[in-house]
Amino acid sequence: MNVGLEHYLVVSVLLFCLGLLGVIVRRNLLVIYMSLELMLNAANLALVAFSRYTDSLDGQVFVFFIITVAAAEVSVGLALIVALYRKRQTSHVEDLTTLRL
Amino acid sequence: MQDALFYTFAFLTLVFGFLVVANPFSRNPVTSAMFLVLTIVSLAGLFVLLHAFFLAAVQILVYAGAVMVLFIFVIMLLDLKAEERRKIKKLGIVGGLISAGAILAIFLNSLLKAPLGAVQSPAVEGGTVPLAKLLFTQYLLPFEIVSVLLLVAIVGVVLLSKKDLK
Fold first, then answer.
1. Which of A46, A90, B46, B67 has the smallest number of CB atoms closer than 10 Å to its CB?
2. Complex ipTM, two decimals?
3. Mean pLDDT of the B89-111 span
């Protein structure tokens, strides 16, 4: 059986669902962030597969931008987590239920 | 050969991804981070199979290199010893499984109905030269905007990591 577009899409969908499961189930902010990265990577895989099987490079350029934006997002998010940890001494979402610092 | 490689890398990606999210042996964030590195590397293998060579290199350099170093640094900064003892709530597991399963069902359903067609002679190659040509002609404006975004992110991070947040 030849590997086609749908095989890559199924892998991407499963990876995305794993990431979503991690975001909902895990209670540690850092692990939630890693699950978010998994979801972004799943989207990247789908975009690259589409780009390959529709004979255009636009999808790969999108993935390039997604990687850049994800790097920026991770740096800002981790800085926020560190700032929050300085104030509250925890990175556990159930201890962070108030809006006030 | 290519099929065997695809199945190997896909299997590795999914297994490592599962171990990031729900490792039965350890709830330590460092373990999750290490398995995330392995997930990213096997995804880069899938990218190579899709002939996206430049993106595979960027994936390893940026994700497995820069982003994961950031993660490890932050884990080192925070003292996370107390986190391991916490229990995961039943409600969270049930809710997570239901929502992830629902999304999975929607995706697979639409995938089954989609007229994907059998394009079996893909010729596109994601090398550095064709990608750069596209990036610096058609996508020049988004490229410049992304550079501004990175600058904003740098300024924001410097501001956020000051000792006394006002």
1. A90
2. 0.91
3. 89
